[in-house]
């Protein structure tokens, strides 16, 4: 994904309100894309930095429907909901599903701009974390099947002699594999290695076993 300026997406079927919010955001220096329907917004959405300001009640897909569709599509854009009236049960549902904020349309413009600032900062943090995890998992993908097998034993705290016996290889080969693992993963200690394994979720699923002597 190429780096680009964040976009604030405004989705509201009220044309006058959509225009007013868009002007406010542009005046504050934001790039804005306005849509009058959730379906229109979703059809044109690309994986670019930003956030979403959505009316809660709209014909067709509602704001909550839009939020659910983003989640299903793997788009993690923070959502700020706007409503013509406060509705506590819906507010709770929206926040439980990860909404950044829930404001009434009569809220001061400062509150909306503050919510947008927080939403964009959250999106930037989440994108940076996802990029870091992709890079980390790419390091693990560079390991050979045998190195992954040795690694699984290493993070369980087993000694080279024990690993050699379990895998049916000699201890010197285990040492060579461990050196290759630490080099590929850019780590210097077993503690750092264990931390990276946990962060990357390498062995979350049941790992394959290997025949002895390979």
Topology overview:
Layout: E1 7-11, H1 15-27, E2 31-35, H2 38-44, E3 50-55, H3 63-73, E4 79-83, H4 88-96, E5 101-104, H5 109-141, H6 145-155, H7 160-167, H8 171-185, H9 190-200
Parallel strand pairs: 1-2, 1-3, 3-4, 4-5
Helix pairs in contact: 6-8, 7-8
Walk me through the structure:
With 214 residues, this protein is α/β, with parallel strands linked by helices. It has 2 domains: 7-130, Response regulator (Rossmann fold, 3-Layer(aba) Sandwich), CATH 3.40.50; 142-200, Arc Repressor Mutant, subunit A. 55% of the residues lie in helices and 12% in strands. It has helices at 15-27, 38-44, 63-73, 88-96, 109-141, 145-155, 160-167, 171-185, 190-200; strands spanning 7-11, 31-35, 50-55, 79-83, 101-104. Strands 2-1-3-4-5 form a 5-stranded parallel beta sheet, sandwiched between helices. Helix 1 (15-27) links the parallel strand 1 (7-11) and strand 2 (31-35). Helix 6 (145-155) packs across helix 8 and helix 7 packs across helix 8. 24% of the residues are buried.
Shape: elongated
Please identify the structural class as seen in this structure. Answer: alpha/beta
- At CATH level 3, the topology of the largest domain is Rossmann fold
Alpha carbon gap, first and last residue: 39 Å
Largest sheet composition: 5 strands, parallel
The CATH homologous superfamily of the largest domain is named Response regulator
């Amino acid at each position: 994904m190429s780096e680009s300026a964040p976009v604030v997406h405004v989705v509201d079927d009220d044309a006058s309100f959509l225009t007013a919010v868009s002007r406010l955001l542009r005046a504050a220096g934001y790039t804005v894309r306005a849509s009058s329907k959730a379906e229109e917004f979703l059809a044109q959405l690309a994986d670019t930095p930003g956030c979403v300001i959505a009316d809660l009640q709209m014909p067709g897909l509602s704001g909550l429907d839009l939020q659910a569709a983003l989640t299903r599509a793997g788009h993690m854009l923070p959502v700020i909901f706007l409503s013509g009236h406060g509705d506590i049960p819906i507010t709770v549902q929206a926040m439980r599903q990860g909404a950044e904020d829930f404001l009434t349309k009569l809220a001061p413009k400062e509150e909306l701009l503050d919510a947008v600032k927080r939403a964009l900062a959250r999106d930037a943090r989440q994108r940076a974390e996802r990029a870091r995890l992709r890079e980390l998992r790419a390091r693990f993908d560079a390991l050979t099947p045998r190195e992954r097998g040795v690694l699984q034993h290493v993070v369980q705290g087993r000694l080279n002699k024990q690993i050699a016996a379990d895998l049916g290889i000699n201890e010197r080969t285990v040492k060579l594999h461990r050196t290759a693992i630490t080099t590929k993963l850019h780590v210097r200690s077993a503690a750092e290695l264990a931390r990276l394994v946990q962060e990357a979720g390498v062995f979350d699923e049941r790992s394959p076993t290997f025949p002895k002597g390979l």
